[in-house]
């Protein structure tokens, strides 16, 4: 039972739930769904924190709670002081996510999604959720020049991923030069997601259904405002765009946001891969 806000464990939870990483990479997850995802994913879980209100969730997580996990209880007031959400559910965990490497991610990869300067953590989390749902084999994040990609393990991105970031193999914050070098020697076809108006006459521009997604591929998703850097455009085998209906007003929607575009491309890849398995009608 923790009764003081100066307790060292409470301080650890406060730091982790605010997005601070410990030296060993431990992060904080909050809410019954994320805690359940962390416990059920086989990741190393160091400790569990439950408030009086959160005790009602114990029966739900007990089947996936390992016997060696330290469990601490505290008051609702003290829990609210460490929580990152406005209406905390009273349950949180300290967990160490698995970080992929180039050596574990690229060999055997059939579909990667690569985020280049995607700044919004909500977009990053949603893309991770779509990547897992539509069968991607992993995700990579890297900066676009001086523009970094939001941490997929930060609190807001984790919530948007609904736990997918804890299960999907992810290589975060890799250098652009190192990533391009590795992609250059891989067997992946590289497709840069672009808006239709950004295409130039000399580039190969395809619609999603014109790509053979059964061939191992990587999808490049760029910054929400400026798109992909020139070096990533040059590295791509082709550019892919998502056609939109003609605007019904003088000022129409410019383009889909990063998360929606990535989700549609990932879905088309899954649809093609599953077509040969479906019975003909």
Quick recap:
With 281 residues, the protein is α/β, with parallel strands linked by helices. The chain folds into 2 domains: 8-95, 2-Layer Sandwich (60s Ribosomal Protein L30, Chain: A); 102-275, 3-Layer(aba) Sandwich (Alpha/beta knot), CATH 3.40.1280.10. It is 31% helix and 17% strand.
User: Order of SSEs, N→C?
Assistant: HEHEHEHEHEHEHEHEEEHEH
Note the beta-strand portion: 15-25%
CATH H-level name of the largest domain... which superfamily? SPOUT methyltransferase, trefoil knot domain
CATH architecture of the largest domain: 3-Layer(aba) Sandwich
Helix content: 25-40%
| CA radius of gyration | 21 Å
According to DSSP, the number of beta strands is 11
Task: Kindly report the spatial arrangement of strands forming the biggest sheet.
Answer: 7-6-5-10-8-11-9
Biggest pleated sheet: 7 strands, parallel
Distance between the termini: 61 Å
Q: What is the highest CATH level, the class of the largest domain?
A: Alpha Beta
Number of helices: 10
CATH topology label of the largest domain: Alpha/beta knot
* Structural class label: alpha/beta
Q: Say what oligomer this is.
A: single chain
- How many domains would you count in the coordinates? 2
Describe the structure.
The structure is a single chain. With 281 residues, the chain is α/β, with parallel strands linked by helices. α6 runs parallel beside α10 (258-275). α3 (58-61) links the parallel β2 (45-51) and β3. It contains 10 helices and 11 strands. Helix content is 31%, strand content 17%. It has 2 domains: 8-95, Ribosomal protein L30/S12 (60s Ribosomal Protein L30, Chain: A, 2-Layer Sandwich), CATH 3.30.1330.30; 102-275, Alpha/beta knot.
């Amino acid at each position: 039972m923790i009764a003081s806000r100066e307790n060292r464990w409470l301080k650890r939870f406060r730091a982790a739930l605010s997005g601070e990483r410990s030296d060993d990479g431990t992060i904080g997850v909050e809410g019954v769904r994320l805690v359940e995802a962390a416990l059920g994913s086989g990741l190393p879980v160091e400790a569990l924190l439950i408030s009086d209100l959160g005790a009602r969730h114990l029966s739900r997580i007990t089947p996936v709670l390992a016997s060696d996990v330290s469990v601490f209880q505290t008051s609702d007031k003290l829990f609210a002081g460490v929580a990152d959400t406005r209406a905390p559910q009273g349950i949180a965990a300290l967990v160490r996510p698995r970080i992929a490497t180039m050596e574990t991610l690229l060999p055997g990869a059939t579909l990667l999604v690569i985020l280049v300067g995607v700044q919004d953590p909500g977009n990053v989390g949603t893309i991770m959720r779509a990547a897992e749902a539509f069968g991607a084999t992993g995700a990579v994040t890297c900066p676009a020049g001086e523009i970094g990609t939001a941490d997929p393990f930060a609190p807001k991105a984790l919530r948007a991923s609904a736990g997918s970031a804890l299960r999907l193999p992810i290589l975060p914050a890799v250098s652009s030069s190192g990533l391009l070098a590795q992609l250059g020697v891989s067997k992946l076809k590289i497709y840069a997601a672009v808006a239709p108006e950004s295409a130039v006459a000399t580039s190969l521009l395809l619609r999603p259904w014109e790509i053979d997604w059964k061939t191992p591929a990587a999808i490049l998703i760029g910054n929400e405002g400026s798109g992909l850097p020139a070096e990533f455009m040059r590295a791509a085998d082709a550019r892919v765009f998502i056609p939109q209906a003609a605007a019904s007003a003088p000022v129409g929607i410019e383009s889909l946001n990063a998360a929606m575009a990535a989700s549609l491309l990932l879905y088309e890849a899954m649809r093609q891969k599953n077509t040969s398995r479906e019975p003909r009608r």
